[in-house]
Amino acid sequence: MAQTQIQAAREGTVTDAMKRVAERENREPEFVREQVAEGQAVIPANVNHDALDPMIIGREFATKVNANIGNSETTSDLEEELRKLHTAVHYGADTVMDLGTGSDLDEIRETHVDHSPVPIGTVPLYEAVKRAGGPEELTTELLLEVIEKQAEQGVDYMTIHAGILAEHLSLTDGRKTGIVSRGGSIMASWMVSHGEQNPLFQVYDEICEIFAEHDVTFSLGDSLRPGSLADACDEAQYAELDTLGELTRRAWKYNVQVMVEGPGHVPMHKVAENVERQQEVCDGAPFYVLGPLVTDIAPGYDHITSAIGAAMAAEAGAAMLCYVTPKEHLGLPDEEDVRDGLAAYRIAAHSGDVANERPGARDWDDALSEARYNFEWREQFGLALDPDRARDYHDQTLPEDNYKEARFCSMCGVEFCSMRIDRDARESRRGSRSGQSPEGSDQPREGGEMNRLESTTDLEASPAAEVNRPPVGTHDSDALSAVGDDSQSVEQAGDD
């Protein structure tokens, strides 16, 4: 049996995956090894996923973003699912979770693994329920069979809802929104129907053995995450978190990598509390959060309400953010929703890295600001998080090529452009007075004059991690189908 990444790290070996991660993160390979060995970071890399370009998830590295995709009984086929995968990777997803519940799940999953340069995650409970015919018909034998099959297919990480226990169920009685996790509601229904303990908890050691054989990473599901602000940080959520801490340590004994999933809906003043508590309870295992949404009043804009919480979580130490699209709680997202959701979350992730002063993270911001000040429009577009969107918005009012050289945009026009006024003021006095400070000097000039501003940021020399430098979507996606013009449906985010 091949070594898992954490087993190799504990034995002092720097694997090829660790070397690649170190290159992408601009960190020393030995530092990567230490973080993996201590369980503070994970490299989801199933031994059967040959197309993978290894990446790392951990609070000491650049914040990552996950996108959920998948089919349903009434939508999508293999070609459309491959297109969804391409769309997610193109717009900057660091990992992709296939939450499909429709037809041809095996073929779609195998195709994703064959083509995806990013880690693929799944929730095996969904397939097990589909095969069983309903939650109450689930058996431990079927659960283990599905988990082992998906591991053999090359899935890099799986959400396992083993933390919700029978004794936790009554703690949800006073909630406003009950159990909102799809997997959590399924396991709760099973326990109520059978009067027994969570079967995933009961066979957890067997799952660890399967994961160790294929180097599958746990994503321990937060089955009791809050689905409304009123339910945040309640007894049910934190009781399950304590169990997830125990499960984390049990998996480590099997040399299996672990990350822990988090909420949900959390008011702003409690976001950091959630991250800090998870880090303490789970001994620093990477925290993977859905949002969190900081208000419940904005259906149709939940990519914004959640990105606010996501940025705060990233600053507090969350390692990966699961995107939310504008259609959250409302319907099945299409391609444009995925684009908007990923943009919002790439902004949140990058903002967290800037706030945490990750090496070179702000260089991208500085380079774009310098291009903006110098009216280098094409450079601005090229440095933008979504170059096509930035160019399209500019060209809606000033489409002609000559406006790519203009020293204004349509918001202020020529006369009131502040940057044009500032540049002209600086240029008009340049070298015109005796006794003027030399160009580039830090010494102030007499009479309140201003020095000329220079562009100094060199992104080529930046120490920033790959995801904190343009362009977004840097994975090799040649093996994926091209993104077309018509919209396609993408599985509802957030129900893992």
Terminal CA distance reads: 30 Å
Mean pLDDT: 90
The rough form would be described as globular
Taking pLDDT < 50 over at least 5 consecutive residues as the criterion, the unreliable ranges are 434-440, 482-494
State the order of secondary-structure elements, H for helix, E for strand: HHHEEEHEHEHHEHHHEHEHEHEHHHHH
Strand content: 5-15%
CATH superfamily of the largest domain: Radical SAM ThiC family, central domain
Function: Catalyzes the synthesis of the hydroxymethylpyrimidine phosphate (HMP-P) moiety of thiamine from aminoimidazole ribotide (AIR) in a radical S-adenosyl-L-methionine (SAM)-dependent reaction.
Keywords: 4Fe-4S, Iron, Iron-sulfur, Lyase, Metal-binding, S-adenosyl-L-methionine, Thiamine biosynthesis, Zinc
Catalytic activity: 5-amino-1-(5-phospho-beta-D-ribosyl)imidazole + S-adenosyl-L-methionine = 4-amino-2-methyl-5-(phosphooxymethyl)pyrimidine + CO + 5'-deoxyadenosine + formate + L-methionine + 3 H(+)
Biased composition (Basic and acidic residues): 442-452
Please explain how this structure is put together:
With 496 residues, this protein is α/β, with parallel strands linked by helices. The chain has two domains: 5-356, Radical SAM ThiC family, central domain (TIM Barrel); 360-431, no CATH class. Helix content is 41%, strand content 7%. It has 18 helices and ten strands. The strands form two sheets. An eight-stranded parallel barrel has the order 3-4-5-6-7-8-9-10, surrounded by six helices. A two-stranded antiparallel sheet has the order 1-2. Helix 4 (78-90) runs parallel beside helix 5 (105-115) and helix 12 packs across helix 13. The longest helix has 21 residues, at 335-355. Residues 434-440 and 482-494 have low confidence and may be disordered.
